[in-house]
Design a protein that fits this description.
mainly beta; eight-stranded antiparallel sheet; five-stranded antiparallel sheet; about 50% strand
Length: about 240
């Protein structure tokens, strides 16, 4: 049975200790058809054959469709420096980013991962299901609690802003999300809006940002990390509807 949530809910981090363990896997994507599933915790859930079908306006059955990233990835973002090692964290097949989760210490964001979900369109409604997470990047311990930051239900990550230290470490991130809009046969993205919550603590040393090209959404993260996060980027894809 598929687990359904309105927004991805992850446990809060605990003070003085990291609250989640890195998973294995997490390779690059960039191939046609969207992100690689290997960066997901728990793998890529299959469709739920038990889902009740919604009735269409003509009295028939409305076909459930999933919002799907397609095509080659476009990597965007100029936040952070060149320390650490490069990484790519991809959402699983049919998943897109609906939030970020991180931990923090005095130097910046010390561990970060993306939260990916499937968005099911059926009968004029959008259902957010099957939340899972990418591999975690950065290994240093946490000093402070940070609540995960989620896009509003039915929205997806399309851009971010943030601040960095003078030595090129990522100090904080703020998300911009766009609502999925569909007429049942095609899908578009509404105007992006900033989520009024921070991951980490803003720094006055420098800033950076990244925004997916018009009509694209994030289905992976990239950047550089060692013990903490040195650089943060989004991997953006064209968006389409596919049968569930």
């Amino acid at each position: 049975m598929r687990c359904t949530t309105r927004m991805p809910i992850l446990g809060l981090v605990t003070a003085m200790a990291c609250s989640f363990e890195p998973s294995g896997g997490g390779g690059p994507s960039g191939s046609a058809g969207g992100p690689d599933a290997s960066g997901m915790l728990g793998g890529d859930p299959g469709p739920d054959s038990d889902q009740d079908a919604a009735s269409g306006d003509d009295g028939g059955v409305a076909v459930a469709q999933v919002v799907t990233p397609v095509g080659e990835a476009t990597t965007v973002g100029d936040l952070g420096g060149d320390g650490g090692s490069s990484f790519i964290g991809a959402c699983g097949a049919g998943h897109v980013i609906t939030g970020l989760d991180a931990e923090d210490n005095d130097f910046g964001l010390c561990r970060l991962r993306a939260v990916c979900s499937r968005l099911i369109v059926q009968g004029g409604e959008i259902e957010v299901v099957d939340a899972a997470a990418t591999q975690t990047f950065g290994t240093s311990g946490s000093y402070y609690d940070i609540d995960p930051v989620d896009c509003p239900a039915g929205s997806v990550l399309v851009a971010f802003t943030g601040s960095e230290s003078d030595d090129g470490l990522v100090h904080h991130l703020r998300l911009r999300c766009a609502r999925i809009e569909t007429d049942g046969t095609s899908v578009t993205l509404g105007a992006s809006a900033e989520v009024p919550a921070n991951l980490g603590s803003p720094s006055n040393d420098g800033s950076g940002a990244g925004a997916c090209p018009a009509g694209q959404l994030a289905a992976g993260i990239a950047g550089r990390a060692g013990s903490i996060l040195d650089r943060f980027e989004l991997r953006c894809y064209q968006v389409a509807l596919a049968p569930e």
